[in-house]
């Protein structure tokens, strides 16, 4: 049975591919590092997230096509790893470590301070102005610098509730 | 140098000599400090000779399992019929452990040099350095160092690449890490076959921890006998070890001491002891996956593989978590269980169900709704989670629960009898 191209269904906007220009060149360079195309999956997903801020189902389908995988397989991988966002998040994404070593040093108070200062209100929710999403994360691997916080790609050590308001102002 | 504290006179600085010294990060700075000399020597040596020296040094894996490094390398096929790979495990995620992060931040070339020597020893042409995704700073520093050293041509035919993780504790398990590089979910594989036979991309593979590899150039440069002589408990445990100390001490941080160093001295002298007015209650000596020690055990423990085992725990990764008398042990054990429940890859029933139910039962106790029989239930669950799964994540969840109930049973009972007010909502 032959498949003919169908016009896009009503309400679905045209898809803008991620892998063009510089992003495609970056992927080509990454592919050369591995003996299989599949091995470029994690790096490819990082490229998508960097370009789009999150990874949509249609992005996953594009990655699948580029690497010779199925969209379902790609989704299975995306949802396994906590750092990929399968849904939109705020402009700034805050991850506060609350695992035991940080927990005993007051990490939960740091989380509360972020939820309040950013207006995100609750864990995983995005602030009404779309700027902030705050999550608790498991061990960031900097336990001697409690409490470590990742704001986007900035790894910030020794955060206390008192420092939170100033940090949030810096990212406005 | 020292970071974040000045070195203590009782430290033995080998790996951490240049911590805090930004100049050591650059290729030129590293070469100025004698860097890449060991690699130059190694590349002129027969691989078997390098393995012999590392075996003789007694170096054991610093990631947690403590497997002899030279022996591990010797499992690789001598006659090369397929591609060989080296994986560097820089997925440091074990709660309480933050030593590899410091090695990568301050001495990235020590890691690269050690990795290149290891690659030559096992005849690997490609090295993948798997760094956890959250380590944005070490990722950037190692990438830069790798570009500099590659441009300088020091690795000859060995190709080295950084592979960024994306948030999964389980990818620190060696075969899960290989799956992750292959573009798969980070599910651990059933062993055997072991990686030296069937590893990354199905090829013979060795995987080593960052700290292990960073020690290798020193061993080649100064000899196996020197490395052994550093230890206070040689020949059983040799060399120095970085201990990451966190929690309720005055000066948390990384400390490098010889194997066999007393834990008591590490905590009270090097780390400045407890906070004012507080006393030591408990300590997890080797990362969150090992049994908890009480105060007496902690204060009489020697820091080497045998010494910590003698106290009923494990040296593990050297992540020392210190709890003072203000700690709610029940809450913190629940928090550890929650960590493992979150990080379970969910392949094995005992782990998927066991970590989740352990967490739920502990939360029920903390909400004032526990029953005395819950303690036996937790122990029963723990027994079914130990030694029954593909990897040891499940066992790691059971360890703090079992040791916690054994050593701090009264605290659990206080929540159950109502003597202590609930801290979680029902």
Short descriptors:
heterodimer; A: 172 residues; alpha+beta; four-stranded mixed sheet; 7 helices; 4 strands; B: 426 residues; alpha/beta; five-stranded mixed sheet; 17 helices; 44% helix; globular
Explain the overall architecture.
The complex is a heterodimer of chains A (172) and B (426). By secondary structure, chain A is of the alpha+beta class. Chain A contains 7 helices and 4 strands; from the N terminus they run ααααβααβββα. Chain A has a 4-stranded mixed beta sheet with strand order 2-1-3-4, covered by helices on one side. Chain B has 426 residues and is α/β, with parallel strands linked by helices. Chain B has helices at 27-32, 37-43, 47-57, 69-74, 99-106, 108-121, 136-152, 174-181, 210-222, 224-230, 263-270, 295-299, 305-310, 329-343, 349-366, 373-385, 393-417, and strands at 85-90, 126-131, 159-164, 205-209, 240-247, 253-258, 261-262, 280-284, 293-294, 302-303, 319-324. In chain B, a hairpin with a 5-residue loop joins strand 5 and strand 6 (253-258). At the A-B interface, helix 2 and helix 5 of A face strand 3, strand 5, strand 11 and helix 14 of B.
């Amino acid at each position: 049975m032959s498949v003919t191209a169908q016009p896009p269904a009503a309400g679905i906007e045209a898809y803008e591919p991620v892998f063009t220009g510089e992003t495609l060149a970056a992927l080509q360079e990454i592919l050369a590092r591995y003996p299989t195309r599949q091995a470029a999956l994690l790096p490819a997903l990082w490229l998508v997230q960097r370009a789009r801020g999150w990874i949509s189902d249609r992005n996953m389908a594009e990655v699948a096509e580029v690497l010779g995988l199925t969209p379902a397989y790609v989704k299975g991988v995306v949802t396994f790893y906590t750092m990929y966002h399968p849904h939109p998040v705020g402009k700034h994404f805050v991850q506060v470590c609350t695992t035991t070593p940080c927990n005993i040093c007051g990490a939960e108070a740091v989380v509360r301070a972020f939820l309040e200062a950013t207006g995100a209100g609750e864990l995983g929710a995005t602030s009404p102005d779309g700027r902030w999403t705050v999550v608790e994360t498991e061990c960031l691997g900097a336990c001697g610098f409690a409490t470590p916080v990742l704001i986007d790609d900035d790894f910030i050590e020794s955060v206390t509730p008192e420092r939170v308001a100033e940090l949030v102002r810096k990212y406005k | 140098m020292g970071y974040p504290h000045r070195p203590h006179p009782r430290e033995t600085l080998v790996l951490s000599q240049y911590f805090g010294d930004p100049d050591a990060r650059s290729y030129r700075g590293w070469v100025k400090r004698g860097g890449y000399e060991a690699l130059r020597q190694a590349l002129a040596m027969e691989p078997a000779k390098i393995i012999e020296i590392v075996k003789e040094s007694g170096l054991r894996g610093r990631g947690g399992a403590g497997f002899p490094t030279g022996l591990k390398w010797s499992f690789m096929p001598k006659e090369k019929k397929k591609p060989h790979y080296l994986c560097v495990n820089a997925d440091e995620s074990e709660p309480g452990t933050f030593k590899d992060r410091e090695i990568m931040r301050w001495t990235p070339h020590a890691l690269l040099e050690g990795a290149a020597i290891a690659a030559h020893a096992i005849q690997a042409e490609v090295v993948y350095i798997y760094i956890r995704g959250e380590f944005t700073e070490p990722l950037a520093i190692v990438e830069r160092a790798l570009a500099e050293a590659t441009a300088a041509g020091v690795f000859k035919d060995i190709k080295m690449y950084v592979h960024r993780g994306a948030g999964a504790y389980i990818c620190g398990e060696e075969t899960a890490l290989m799956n992750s590089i292959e573009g798969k979910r980070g599910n651990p594989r059933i062993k055997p076959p072991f990686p030296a036979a069937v590893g990354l991309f199905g090829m013979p593979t060795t995987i080593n921890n960052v700290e292990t590899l960073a020690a290798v150039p020193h061993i080649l440069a100064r000899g196996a006998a020197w490395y052994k002589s550093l230890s206070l408990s040689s020949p059983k445990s040799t060399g120095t070890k970085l201990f990451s100390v966190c929690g309720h001490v005055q000066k948390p941080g990384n400390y490098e001491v010889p194997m066999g160093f007393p834990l008591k001295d590490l905590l009270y002298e090097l780390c400045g002891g407890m906070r004012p007015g507080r006393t030591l209650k408990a300590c997890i000596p080797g990362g969150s996956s090992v049994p908890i020690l009480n105060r007496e055990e902690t204060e009489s423990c020697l820091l080497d593989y045998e010494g910590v085992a003698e106290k009923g725990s494990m040296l593990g990764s050297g992540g020392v978590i210190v709890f003072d008398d203000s700690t709610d042990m029940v809450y913190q054990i629940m928090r550890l269980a929650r960590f493992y429940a979150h990080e379970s890859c969910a392949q094995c029933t005992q782990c998927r169900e066991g970590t989740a139910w352990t967490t739920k039962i502990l939360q029920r106790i903390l909400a004032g709704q526990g029953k005395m029989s819950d303690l036996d239930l937790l122990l029963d669950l723990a027994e079914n989670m130990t030694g029954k799964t593909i990897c040891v994540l499940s066992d790691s969840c059971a360890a703090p629960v079992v040791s916690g109930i054994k050593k701090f049973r009264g605290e659990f009972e206080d929540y159950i009898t109502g003597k202590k007010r609930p801290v979680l909502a029902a």
